[in-house]
Automatic annotation (TrEMBL):
The keyword Iron applies. This is Pisatin demethylase. GO terms for molecular function: heme binding; iron ion binding; monooxygenase activity; oxidoreductase activity, acting on paired donors, with incorporation or reduction of molecular oxygen. InterPro entries: Cyt_P450, Cyt_P450_CS, Cyt_P450_E_grp-I, Cyt_P450_sf, Cytochrome_P450_monoxygenase.
């Protein structure tokens, strides 16, 4: 052994290792570019050789933009990984996301595991089916409506802050204001306790959630290298990598603390965590363990706040930068909903969506042009292969269609796909089946009802009471590692609209 090691480090041994490395590398390049079943599909050369290409653009927070650019250049299907195809056309939606077990989730979702795989991250279809039955009641529209007084408590704090800005004329950051409000709503509704972000004007959880999403998507996009990356990241000499791993630990500890407190001191107060503690499988009567509750609560903390606050930030940006659209929204609120009464904190969510069709069109257009949940939700073609549109995709291939790319396909939305134009939803030309901000199929986001409640209540209430003026004139740009937000700050001024606000 000693002699063999000595020979290995000799000039001849080193030359042999270099030769082997070059041969393997050359063979890998030849196979991936000319012999691989996906070699016929266009895309960046580096992407066909390694997942590092995707991971780099996730790190830069612009993978969604790069995908649109590549589709504009190459057409409806592009190869963005050694074994990965990204689709652009609408016929790919049902073929990929409504195919059930024929399109199982890939290792990408393992990157999100903190406790155990949760409802979003589990690749086990049987477990997903059981877990969704267990928790679905707590996320139903009826349950969310019962929690509306909790949301109104946080809405009161938000309104008082905005009243204060109106009184003093102070310039404030709308994006930060909304982020703190949404986090506190989530804390109250999901965990039975506010994070007091609105009082402090900040919260450590907000940047930590960004970091967790970045970490998850970086690991997830690296495929077979995930276990190695997870093991090495905690020892990285690179400061930002150490930071995002610390952020995940912070969120994990915060979540576990909330769950432990709820289980040790249960109350009758209706919230989502209480629903998880009490929930049962309708078929078997099985309850969730503490580990199960931690697992699902962590998902609520991460996805529930960031996606909603990011969406609201963009919605207000678009409304304040399109005054004719804003005027129509305010007129609709005045006409359809009337003024808030003296004891109303905000408009009731019950039936609200049907009463304000133009405002809903604005929300849909916001989901279309800037869907903040922009990550690639990868599925794997099973052993029989798949037909996706005109393409026959071989088994074992990873496939997806990101909503940002889909929502910017001019063949679907027209040449003005980069223009915020809510009227497209009232002209009968836009198809809601091509709008997938919450995904589709049996894996659709279970938090959709809570998100829409927050979005509609916040928008209608604030615009009914206040007149906002934006001082931010930079173009709206989505920066996203998977769940994103408006780039930069969002500075505004505000004044009262209704005499009620002066009481």
């Amino acid at each position: 052994m000693l002699l063999s090691l000595q020979s290995l480090y000799s000039p001849q041994g080193i030359a042999m290792l270099i030769s082997i490395f070059l041969f393997v590398g050359f063979f890998h390049i030849v196979y991936q570019c000319f012999l691989h079943p996906l070699a016929k599909y266009p895309g960046p050369l580096l992407a066909s050789l390694t997942n590092v290409w995707k991971t780099y653009y996730v790190y830069k927070h612009i993978l969604h933009e790069k995908l649109v650019e590549l589709h504009e250049q190459h057409g409806p299907v592009i190869r963005i990984g050694p074994n990965d195809l990204h689709f652009w056309n609408a016929e790919a939606i049902p073929a990929i996301y409504k195919a059930g077990k024929a399109m199982g989730k890939t290792e990408f979702y393992d990157g999100f595991t903190t406790f155990n795989p949760n409802l979003f991250g589990t690749r086990n279809e049987a477990l997903h089916s059981v877990r969704r039955r267990q928790v679905s009641h707590g996320f139903s529209q009826a349950s969310i409506e019962k929690m509306e007084p909790i949301i109104d408590d946080q809405m009161s704090i938000l309104i008082n802050h905005v009243k204060g800005f109106a009184k003093t004329g102070e310039i404030f950051d709308m994006k930060n204001l909304i982020s703190c409000f949404v986090l506190d709503v989530l804390g109250d509704v999901a965990f039975g306790r506010s994070f007091d972000a609105q009082i402090a004007g900040r919260a450590d959880e907000i940047p930590a959630i960004n970091d967790h999403i970045l970490l998850s998507c970086l690991i997830g996009e690296m495929g077979a290298w995930q276990d190695v990356l997870k093991a090495l990241m905690g020892y990285s000499p690179i400061a930002w990598i150490r930071r995002i791993t610390r952020s995940r630990r912070l969120l994990k500890e915060k979540c576990a603390s909330c769950v432990r407190r709820k289980m040790e001191d249960p109350s009758e107060r209706l919230d989502l965590l209480q629903s998880l503690v009490r929930c049962q499988d309708p078929g078997t009567g099985a309850r969730l363990t503490e580990l199960d509750i931690n697992t699902e609560a962590f998902a609520m903390l991460v996805a529930g706040s960031h996606s909603t606050s990011g969406t609201l930030g963009f919605l207000f940006w678009h409304l304040l930068h399109n005054r004719d659209v804003l005027d129509k929204v305010v007129q609709e609120l005045d006409t359809s909903l009337g003024p808030l009464s003296g004891n109303q904190v905000g408009y009731s969510i019950k039936g609200l969506e049907g009463e304000i069709p133009y405002t809903m069109a604005c929300a849909r257009e916001n989901f279309r042009i800037h869907p903040v949940f922009s990550m690639n939700l990868w599925r794997r073609v099973n052993m029989y292969g798949a037909e996706i549109g005109e393409f026959i995709v071989p088994h074992g291939t990873n496939v997806c269609i990101s909503n940002y790319a889909l929502h910017h396909n001019p063949d679907i939305w027209g040449a003005d796909h980069n223009t915020y134009r809510p009227d497209r939803w009232l002209e009968g030309k836009a198809n809601t089946s091509n709008l997938i901000p919450f995904s589709v199929g049996h894996r659709m986001c279970i938090g959709k009802n809570l998100a829409m409640t927050n979005i509609l209540k916040t928008t209608s209430t604030l615009l009914a009471m206040f007149e906002f003026e934006t001082l931010s004139n930079q173009p709206a740009r989505l920066l996203s590692s998977g769940i994103g937000e408006l780039e930069g700050g969002f500075l505004c001024r505000v004044k009262m609209r209704r005499s009620r606000g002066e009481e």
